[in-house]
C-alpha cells in the first residue's frame, strides 16, 4: 500500500446514507457542503450525482481542506476556506444564483478533537485555543482571562447548560488573579474544584462545549446560514443539518417549524400575521443513527439530522 497517498487522518461521516437519501433531489444540481471537513459526506454525495452536477465545499479550517484529494470528486468541485456564514459571498464569487442542496454537519472533525494543540478535548494537555479558524486571534484563552465573572458564568450556563456555572466562574477568576490561564489543565482544574467527582466528566464536556461555542460564535453563524439558505435554495432544493447538541438542534428545529407555517389571510388580519410556508419539513422527528452506527462510530450517538425542502413561495 502506498503510505504517501493515504490521508493523514480518518473521519467517518455520520448518517451518510440518510443524508444522501433525504437531501439529493436533483442529480444534476449544485450542492453545498458547508462543513466539508475531510470530505466524507461530499465523497458519498458525489457518487450519487451526475457528471454535470457541481459541488461546493466550504470549511473554515484550512488544515482540513488541505488534506482532501480532489481527484476523488468526478463533478466540478470548488473548495473555499471560509466560514459558512459567508455562503452568499461564495456564491456571488462563483456566479451561482441557486443551489439544490445544502449540508451542514456541525461541530468539529475527529482529527481536530484529537489534536492537543487545538485545545478542544478536555482530556488532553494543550493550549486554551478552541478556534475552528486559526487565522482568528480570538481564542479560549482570551475568553477565560478577559471576560468578567458574570460573562463566564452566563456562557457556561447558556451554551453548556452547566448548573455549576457560577461556582466555576468564581474559581476561574480566583485562579487568574494569580496568573494568566493558558492551558487546558488549568480549566480542567477550575471545573474539578467545583464539581462532584462523579459528575466531573459531564461538567467538563459541557464547559468545554460552552467555551467552544463562544470562541467560534457557533449559534450566530448557524442562524446566519439558516437564513441565507432560504434565499439561495432553488424550489425543491433541500437543506440537511446534523447537530450534536441540543442548542443547535433546537435552533434548526424552530427555524424549520417557523418557516413551514401556513397561516392564510383572514379578514381583519395584519400583514405580519399572514404566513406562506417557505419550507416543507422532510423529517418530522430528527433522524438518529442506528444502533449499529452508534456502536461503530461514537460521534454518531448524539447526532440529529433534520431536513427541509424549499417551497416555491417567494421570500420577501
Ligand atoms: C463534523 S466536521 C464535518 C465532517 C465532514 N462532514 C466529513 O465527512 O469529513 C465539521 C467541520 O465543519 C467545520 N466548521 C464548523 N463550523 C464551521 C463554520 N461556521 N464555517 C465553516 N466550517 C465550519 C469544522 O472546521 C469541521 O471541519
List the topology elements.
Layout lengths: L15 H8 L6 E4 L6 H9 L5 E6 L2 H4 L10 E6 L5 H8 L4 E7 L4 H4 L26 H7 L2 H12 L4 H14 L5 H9 L7 H16 L2 H15 E11 L2 H14 L19 E3 L9 H6 L7 E7 L6
Parallel strand pairs: 1-2, 1-4, 2-3, 4-5
Antiparallel strand pairs: 5-7, 6-7
Bound molecules: S-adenosylmethionine.
S-adenosylmethionine binds next to helix 2 and strand 2.
Description:
By secondary structure, the chain is an alpha/beta fold. It has 2 domains: 3-110 and 218-310, Vaccinia Virus protein VP39 (Rossmann fold); 134-215, DNA polymerase, domain 1 (Orthogonal Bundle). 40% of the residues lie in helices and 14% in strands. The protein is built from 13 helices and 7 strands. The protein has helices at 16-23, 40-48, 62-65, 87-94, 110-113, 140-146, 149-160, 165-178, 184-192, 200-215, 218-232, 246-259, 291-296, and strands at 30-33, 54-59, 76-81, 99-105, 233-243, 279-281, 304-310. It has a 7-stranded mixed beta sheet, sandwiched between helices. Helix 3 links the parallel strand 2 (54-59) and strand 3. Helix 1 crosses helix 2, helix 7 (149-160) packs across helix 8 (165-178) and helix 8 crosses helix 9. The model is unreliable at 1-7 (pLDDT under 50). Residues 11, 13, 35, 37-41, 58-61, 64, 83-84, 105, 107-109, 132, 221 line the site of S-adenosylmethionine (SAM).
